[in-house]
Amino acid sequence: NAGVMQNPRHLVRRRGQEARLRCSPVKGHSHVYWYRQLPEEGLKFMVYLQKENIIDESGMPKERFSAEFPKEGPSILRIQQVVRGDSAAYFCASSPLAGGPGTQYFGPGTRLTVL
Amino acid sequence: KQEVTQIPAALSVPEGENLVLNCSFTDSAIYNLQWFRQDPGKGLTSLLLIQSSQREQTSGRLNASLDKSSGRSTLYIAASQPGDSATYLCAVSYNTDKLIFGTGTRLQVFP
Q1: How many Cβ contacts (< 8 angstroms) between chains A and B?
Q2: Do A56 and B97 touch (CB under 8 A)?
Q3: Residues B69-108, buried b or exposed e (16+ Cβ, 10 A)?
Q4: Do A42 and B97 make contact, defined as CB atoms within 8 angstroms?
Q5: CA distance A20 to B27
Q6: Which of B36, B44, B93 faces A99 most closely, judged by CB atoms?
Q7: Where is average pLDDT lowest: A84-93, B16-25, B41-50, B61-70?
């Protein structure tokens, strides 16, 4: 019974390159959340998606960041033209219901390092 | 602004002690509150979830209480063990989507 899967677990990019982070939710979950954890800080919400829809992107930086959750396949967090300040751990979570009695199930994270 | 604060930021105790970790939130109209554990370089493990209508939840040596009116939650760890060493995160939700996290309490339990 697989939980939330994220890949890659570690990603190194040079400034100006693109980073693509993937998240496969728990089977049957249709809600996906992305969070970012900067060094020595707590997790900050970025975006909440349902299949083919962005529900809340209030935590997403206005430029260079985008997210999608297609009908088929994993959710993708895309960062264009990465800068050193993008270095962080990016966590994905999924849930079966929107804010229902269940919890959000978190993946192991992708640690992005920008050189 | 909806904020979550955790104190202390770090705690180092000998094995066997009973511990209290504190979490406070500025907006008391929460939907639910969760306590998570995060091990270095790892993801988050949900420990306890308290719905807004509940006062406490227990799981093994862990007990979490919630006082909505005062905007506070405590996580009580009984008879601490070295394996409890981790960062403990408190998170609240106000509606059907995002969690708002505190910055965590880094706990070290030494033998």
Answers
A1: 58
A2: yes
A3: eebbbbbebeebeeebbbbbbbbbbbeebbbbbbbbbbbe
A4: no
A5: 35
A6: B93
A7: B41-50
Mutate to test the interface with A, among B32, B38, B44 (most CBs of A within 10 A): B44
The DSSP annotation for chain A comes to: ----EEE-SEEEE-TT--EEEEEEPPTT--EEEEEEE-TTS-EEEEEEEETTEEEE-TTS-SSSEEEE--SSS-EEEEE-S--GGG-EEEEEEEESSSS-SSPPEE---EEEEE-
Between chains, do A109 and B101 touch, taking CB under 8 Å as contact? no
* Rounded Cα distance, B7 and A47, in Å: 27
CA–CA separation, A27 and A97 (whole Å) = 13
* Location of structure tokens 């088929």: A72
The residue among B90, B85, B61 whose CA lies nearest residue B74 is B90
Cβ separation of A42 and B99 shorter than 8 Å?
A: no
DSSP chain B: ---EEEE-SEEEEETT--EEEEEEES----SEEEEEEE-TTS-EEEEEEEETT-SEEEETTEEEEEETTTTEEEEEE-S--GGG-EEEEEEEESSSS-EEE---EEEEEE-
pLDDT at residue A113, as a whole number: 97
Q: Tell me the per-residue pLDDT of B36-79, one tens digit each, with 9 for 90 and over.
A: 999 987 889 999 999 999 999 999 999 999 999 999 999 999 99
